[in-house]
Amino acid sequence: MATNRTFTMLKPDAVENGHIGAILEKINASGFRIVAMKKTQMTQADAEAFYAVHSERPFFGELVEFMTRGPIVAAILEKDNAVEDFRTLIGATNPADAAEGTIRKLYATSMGENAVHGSDSDENAAIEGAFHFSGREMF
Ligand code: IDP
Predict the structure, then answer these.
(1) Which of 22, 52, 96, 125 has the greatest CB tally within 10 Å of its CB?
(2) Which residue, judged by its Cα, is nearest atom 15 of ligand 1?
(3) Ligand 1 midpoint to CA 112 (Å)
């Protein structure tokens, strides 16, 4: 059964560029409730584990370096149809292909430095949320 939660990270580029407030405002305005949230920084081991599915891809090293270079904001979000609706809100992986008004269209600078993560399935949302948060941090 589909769950109503997804997991997101505001990536180091979004934090460095001062976009935390604007992105959270957009998330709130789009009807998502914040279940859990924190500012944190991924270690190399964290990023390699989180993105293990991409370990054979040519951009893996670049991705790990990017995701560990500064703090992120991690959050679990709740809404009906959360995974799909959040993917719509963030837009395509490559900001050049992202629809007008999406978070990546507004704040991403490249395919790699694309401002925000959104889980791609209910199963991954649960795994990724549990990667960053304990049950005591979810409300
Ligand atoms: P998604 O984040 O839209 O689900 P994925 O294909 O799962 O996209 O890729 C995970 C992340 O890896 C992307 O968000 C982006 O930061 C990075 N990435 C994907 N493709 C490339 C690439 O071709 N060059 C550099 N980084 C990439």
Answers:
(1) 125
(2) 112
(3) 6
CATH topology of domain 5-42+71-137: Alpha-Beta Plaits (3.30.70)
Determine contact, residues 74/132, Cβ cutoff 8 Å. Answer: yes
Residue range 115-124, pLDDT digits in tens:
999 999 999 9
Please indicate whether residue 117, judged by its CB atom, sits closer than 6 Å to ligand 1: yes
**Ligand 1 atom nearest to 87, measured from its CA:** 3
Per-residue pLDDT of 79-121, as tens digits, reads 999 999 999 999 999 999 999 999 999 999 999 999 999 999 9
Report the b/e string of 22-54 with b at 16+ CB within 10 A. Answer: ebbebbeeeebeebbbeeeebeeebbbebbeee
- Biggest distance spanned by C-alpha atoms of the chain: 39
Catalytic residues: 117
